[in-house]
Amino acid sequence: MSRRVLQGQVLHDGKSECTSLHGRWHCGANPDESDCWEHYSGNFWRASCGHVRTLADPSLSTTAFKGAMHMGAGHGDSKVCSPMGPLGRYWAEAWITQGYVDRGDKLPLVGIRGKGDANVLMRTVHFLFFKHNIHPLYLVDTIARIAGMTW
Q1: Which residues, other chains included, contact 59 with Cβ-Cβ below 8 Å and sequence gap of 6+?
Q2: Predicted confidence (pLDDT) per residue in 25-59, tens digit
Q3: What is the distance between the alpha carbons of residues 54 and 99, in angstroms, rounded to a whole number?
Q4: What are phi and psi of 13, to 5 degrees?
Q5: Integer Cα distance of 47 and 33 in angstroms
Q6: What's the confidence (pLDDT) of residue 29?
Q7: Confidence (pTM)
Q8: From the CB of residue 123, how many other CB atoms can be counted at a distance below 10 Å?
Q9: H-helix or E-strand containing 15?
Q10: Distance, CA of 107 to CA of 86 (rounded, Å)
Q11: Which helix (H) or strand (E) holds 145?
């Protein structure tokens, strides 16, 4: 469900919100300004071609790719600062915001404010998970267990 919400935000509302920015830009759903590395949680974003041209080539050698994808301690926890930066799939999330050749080119995160075209149920589930770290299915399961119900 969250993917549907993120897609709706980036493709629908992001079309006007992001493209109204001038010059080099990037914007996305769920901006996360963690202490270790800024990224768009969920990896849904838009960027201008001018911005992408300032980033390091994302293609890696086989050895470098295996190193970046290694899922070691703190690999995706933005509260545990890995000295190598984000690893695993989080490496891709951070590329658009952290992949600069010249660190002076860094831009701030810009969140998409619109809700996209997802229905209310999808947006609610998404909001609970990303804003409050509540997984609705886990919540329902916990309430059922407390009430003595089993699935």
Answers
A1: none
A2: 888 888 888 777 788 877 888 999 988 888 887 77
A3: 8
A4: -70, -35
A5: 18
A6: 84
A7: 0.66
A8: 18
A9: helix 14-19
A10: 18
A11: helix 136-146
Could you tell me which residues come within 8 angstroms of residue 94 by beta carbon, excluding any fewer than 6 positions away?
A: 37, 38, 39, 85, 86
Both tokens assigned to 50: 């001018």
Q: How far apart are CA 6 and CA 78, in angstroms?
A: 20
Tokens of 24: 């080099």
Phi-psi region of 132 (alpha: psi -120 to 50; beta: other; left: phi over 0): alpha
Helix, coil or strand: residue 26:
strand
pLDDT average, residue stretch 103-109:
73
Report CA torsion sign: 98, 99, 100, 101: positive
Structure tokens given for 72: 């070691």
Query: Could you tell me the sign of the dihedral formed by the alpha carbons of 131, 136, 142, 147, in that order?
Result: positive
Alpha-carbon span 94 to 22, nearest angstrom: 22
Q: Are 111 and 124 in contact (CB under 8 A)?
A: no
Angle between helices 89-98 and 62-69 (to 10 degrees): 100
